[in-house]
Amino acid sequence: xxxxxxxxxxxxxxxxxxxLLIVDKLDLFCGxxxxxxxxxxxxxxxxxxxxxxxxxxTSDSLSVSEGFEPRRDVHWVSFEEQQRIWExxxxxxxxxxxxxxxxxxxxxxxxxxxxxxxxxxxxxxxxSLVSSLNLGDLLDxxxxxxxxxxxxxxxxxxxxxxxxxxxAQVIILDDPLASIDLDSQAxxxxxxxxxxxxxxxxxxxxxxxQDRLEGATRIVVMEAIQSTQGRExxxxxxxxxxxxxxxxxxxxxxxxxxxxxxxxxMLLRKLADEExxxxxxxxxxxxxxxxxxxxxxxxxxxxxxxxxxxxxNILIAGPNGCGxxxxxxxxxxxxHKGYGQELWLFGRRKGSGETLWExxxxxxxxxxxxxxxxxxxxxxxxxxxxGFFDSEGLYDTPSAQQLDLxxxxxxxxxxxxxxxxxxxxxSFGQQxxxxxxxxxxxxxxxxxLDEACVGLDNDYLEIVLRSVDRIVENTSTRLLFVSHSADxxxxxxxxxxxxxxxxxxxxxxxEDKDGLVx
Length: 518
Fold this sequence. Notes:
Rossmann fold; 17 helices
């Protein structure tokens, strides 16, 4: 009988005053691929943090085989790891001291190879991973200049490169296909399938049944349970895949409920009655005429021509690295590269006297980047109220009216009781709804959802999509929706924009006439 590499026994870990992680017993054996399933807030990530040694527990609860060091031998692929890397790169950015004002930072080649010691380099493996994950054009590029999807492929290459060692290695894949275009998803699935036999253990964290990777050997079901002691994040069942798929526990994970949007519609009707009509309602919301953008010598967008009218709700789709985030930054004020170009916002040319805050006031934004910036130090109600001031955190004193409206938005989205809770303690889905409330408290002209459905389970995905539909139906707010998944968009979408790659490697914006809903 083989001994487990990692064992959990009788774990009862208090996460905060109202939440416990409960695991009676879980053994992880080499050669297995564990798929840990559960909705947002079920405890999957916390379980993985315990297994990887990041979250410390007593030696009675966690034991590992001799020679296995979790902090050294566990490799993460997750949004949290991406954010940690980005923050580190930004802290070390010395571009302001460089003559060309550019600091490339850590390049992709170094990021992948540094996962193993200098004395244990494998050129054949390195080049195989680079080729399989289509990273060849990125090897000399700084990590901070990659899109979310590109850095995800780099992290997978780094984890696989490190895992081909002489001792046991574990890879944790937290929703590995999230924010990945369809072509890259196929690459990732193929690479993981080929390298799986060489990895001691794979732990996959999965929020939705349809996102499971091929090759899982065992399923672990996590579930949030309300008890007299508060909320328990419990491991309720685990076993071989075929047996687990027929259990009641897995069925509960697989099913999802239709959201009730009655409270939201009541608030929206009330706000519509109070809305002051815009005198410039017939003018285009956005107009770009031959707009371009570059970073250093690399051109990202070329000759972009686009008009967004007051009746448009637009899907912006395109592969990782095509310039979607750059386009959004040009229009919502985060990038200075739009100044001096033919870029018109709400009937006024950008840079004609308006302040940055006047521009930001017109946009409500929900994005992965914004999501992670709030993970420390703020309560949910403060995050919502910061939307009035377009700040990342609440540094101004809100009025009584603003405080009341923030509470109304949380209640309308089914989160009435969380205003005083720490944002970081909420489930991922709850955090996204808090950011949606933050975006809407100021009644923006344009709601920008930049990959806002990434990381959501089916229940929260449906809540977000149907809530956005109600917002568009009942207010003058229009929508810019960025997504890789055509089956995960609001029904209100009536235009679709894509990207065409040009000979110089840059992209330009094109209208996609297929499947329009008018």
